[in-house]
Design brief:
The structure is a homotetramer. Chain A is built from eight helices and 13 strands. The first copy, chain A, is globular, with a radius of gyration of 18 Å. The first copy, chain A, has a single domain, classed as 4-Layer Sandwich (Glutamine Phosphoribosylpyrophosphate, subunit 1, domain 1), CATH 3.60.20.10. In chain A, the strands form two sheets. In chain A, strands 3-2-4-1-10-9-11 form a seven-stranded antiparallel β-sheet. Helices cover about 25% and strands about 25% of the residues of chain A. Chains in contact: A-B, A-C, A-D, B-C, B-D, C-D. The interface between A and D is medium-sized, with 19 and 19 residues. Chains A, B, C, D: This is Class II glutamine amidotransferase. Chains A, B, C, D: Keywords: Glutamine amidotransferase. Chains A, B, C, D: Pfam families: GATase_4.
Amino acid sequence: MCRWLVYSGTPQLLETILYKPTHSLIDQSLHSRMGVETTNGDGFGIGWYAQDADLGSPAVFRETGPAWNNRNLREIAGHVRSSLFFAHIRASTGTAVQQTNSHPFRHGRWMWMHNGAIAGFPAMRRDLCLAVDPSLFAAIEGSTDSEVMFFLALTMGLEDDPPGAVARMAGLVERTGHAHGIAAPLQMTIATTDGESVWAFRYASEGDARSLYYSSRVDSIRALHPDVSYLKELSEETRLVVSEPLGDLPGVWNEVPEHSYGVVREGADELRPFAPA
Amino acid sequence: MCRWLVYSGTPQLLETILYKPTHSLIDQSLHSRMGVETTNGDGFGIGWYAQDADLGSPAVFRETGPAWNNRNLREIAGHVRSSLFFAHIRASTGTAVQQTNSHPFRHGRWMWMHNGAIAGFPAMRRDLCLAVDPSLFAAIEGSTDSEVMFFLALTMGLEDDPPGAVARMAGLVERTGHAHGIAAPLQMTIATTDGESVWAFRYASEGDARSLYYSSRVDSIRALHPDVSYLKELSEETRLVVSEPLGDLPGVWNEVPEHSYGVVREGADELRPFAPA
Amino acid sequence: MCRWLVYSGTPQLLETILYKPTHSLIDQSLHSRMGVETTNGDGFGIGWYAQDADLGSPAVFRETGPAWNNRNLREIAGHVRSSLFFAHIRASTGTAVQQTNSHPFRHGRWMWMHNGAIAGFPAMRRDLCLAVDPSLFAAIEGSTDSEVMFFLALTMGLEDDPPGAVARMAGLVERTGHAHGIAAPLQMTIATTDGESVWAFRYASEGDARSLYYSSRVDSIRALHPDVSYLKELSEETRLVVSEPLGDLPGVWNEVPEHSYGVVREGADELRPFAPA
Amino acid sequence: MCRWLVYSGTPQLLETILYKPTHSLIDQSLHSRMGVETTNGDGFGIGWYAQDADLGSPAVFRETGPAWNNRNLREIAGHVRSSLFFAHIRASTGTAVQQTNSHPFRHGRWMWMHNGAIAGFPAMRRDLCLAVDPSLFAAIEGSTDSEVMFFLALTMGLEDDPPGAVARMAGLVERTGHAHGIAAPLQMTIATTDGESVWAFRYASEGDARSLYYSSRVDSIRALHPDVSYLKELSEETRLVVSEPLGDLPGVWNEVPEHSYGVVREGADELRPFAPA
């Protein structure tokens, strides 16, 4: 339904990642290869942490039109550098196209974005909203399943234990779905961050989950492609997680296994199994 | 916070009512005289019943920018005729400026628009949403108090007994507000219609309610102003209900009394007292 | 680059033509089969003549987002009837996405829309603008080649002799292009109307012109498809001209030959050769 | 018609200047005190130079809605720092509300913004456009007088001699206006910059020019207000030029005299007389 991208690493102009690759996210907004829809033109968003340590929360720029023709996105991407940013392009399945339905969502220092859907969400929406912490309820601004999933995860401890909270959220969604007679309620790839670590999840109640890839370690890519000068400027820690590869360079892109999640952070990254709780 | 207008009567081009009067609603979007804010530039909407009997529900055109510079509004207003239409200009008090927060709201044949506010709405939002009929909950698309009030009224019988349902909605809002420690929870002028009758309410929990006016009977205006040729084309049944008068012609505008509601319909119109139930 | 549609005939709700066919123009906005681009998401417009004889000029509703997710378009299409309307979906090749660059363009009673391009337009823009009648110059609002072509045609007599004026415009564009070293300056399918007749042109300086089709006479379609009840309501005069067929019903769609133009009007329609003058 | 602001000095978060002052530019968008219109809600723009020396041209973010409710503006303002930026809020006098008509305009490293109008511009537009260097003509994207003034100034040497070029542009506008029978063709306050110096002009062909103010030297403001801690962080070089003062602190704001221009740059700023050439 959507496509997204996480960048974490050596500070870059956003456009280096968003526009320059052969099959960049902007290109995917018109010509997605692996998505359910080839066009992702129902809004977009980016969220970035500024390089000033004293700005608590990330900047979030969200719009309702397509990413491919948005001049303001190109301006920002050409003038803002960040070492950690999210980007998302949306293909709506009927929910209103409005700024508050574009990803990423933000709460304090946290960001969240999602590709997939809760099957039968309209029928479940009330039950799921009721499970959101009452003190958070008023902060729900849009009408998407994705935002409700974020608030459920926040309710269930996202800020203390992201993998546990996402597992509990997924479990609740599945139980609620089953209670409403939905056999396979959940399709999700999710990225969330507190500005330091990034957690990326891939899961489906049934069958294949939406595609998700992560980039290889920079040193191993360099060894494969000693002639690609661009790679020399990147730290070892630099990592991308994407709905679909940004190009065809061999050895760069690895599929995130079904039912698993990865953690990107300073030090060793991790890849672990995921199951709803 | 907002300004609105109801027209019911001889079929007119929308622009005759929306643009031509000296102090038209479009003029009020820039220069409101009686509103809490002089500028109402945070979105607008119109809703009209087409003159084809077979089209069940009204057309609703809603936007996020100001009415005064919207070319599409002017085009529609210059080419569409209707015998019953609503128009609304919004001044947000912080809620997102998005299409789904612009009035009028629609459900089947019904439309609804509101000026005013529920004091302390963020804290009450969850309780009020819970009181909405579960089968209607998924149809809430925006984040305004006004839309929740509409769904509460629908839950409480709007389609069968509009004054009773609005009274019950107002009662629930006041009780919920009091439970949250809000002394004066409700400020409202509301218009609602099923395409045949229009109900317009004016109420405040405390102090003056937002301004509301209705036009005099066409025959009495004609007697006062025999030289105004425009009036000759209007049926006796023609009536306007507006947040503030569209001009200064003496004898045309009458204040809706505090704590009352009016009914505009074929046959004799009515004006009655209103109290939350 | 774009796709367009002309309807002329028995008054219809716009949605009957715009949304209901299998491969409707709205579907083409996401999945064009014959266009240079599959996605036409850079703005859209409709223009219709209201059924009131006293409204001189058509209504034009133009937007900057994609047609497929525009709720206001659906509202208008579901509530407005017309016997003559234009619709256009845009795929920009770099020119700004803004209302004044969306088609159809209007001047008095006249409308104009275009698919194609003037090769090398930026370099020729000044020369072509200088050829516009000085009294019309200030009315150019956007930055497209299409709008300049319209104003050139108006300058060259569109209102008196549409085929002649379009031929003179095309001739000027080709001469100007050649002077700028462009071998094949013009690609165009154009529709224009005064509210009574419609002229549709197909031409390219070199090679295949953009696709263009017209619907067969209603009586012949009826003879082929006696079971299609929808056809019974249509007058013999009803005609569609479209960038690509709206469906696969055999015998309905005929290609407009290269280098020709058609006239749709009360009485016998015509198809004639076209050459720049 | 519009209001604008220039900041040059110690790097600041844009929000410090755009949102925090009592009578900030954002407040002026709703409640201008000195403008021809109190509401400036027909689009806005900001342009800033990033603090990376290697990014040649400034970022320009322009929108069509009001500044006061734009969430993306607030996000950018809260996360981007700059030592030189422009901001502009627009009140249209009829010209289309579109991104390409919002200020600031940009050409390479240069930015330009304007408050005022060319009287009788529609009639003069063609003559003025013809005077634009043919190689620049195709870069005109919008339909405002302000953008044409920018391209005329570029044609007449803005990049080499800004005061001379603006004087020649103003002279041409006045001569063209007089030729069209306009007695007082020009009203302007203009700001332009190459990223290092800023030039600000105030001029009217007749009568009072639009208001324009500059801030006092930081050391003299500090002497007057030793208790304002904020001032301690500002370099001596810091300077604001604004359509109307951002607050009421005595001794801070000085009117730019009629028919003069100022230069803000490293080293001593200047204030000089201005006359069309």
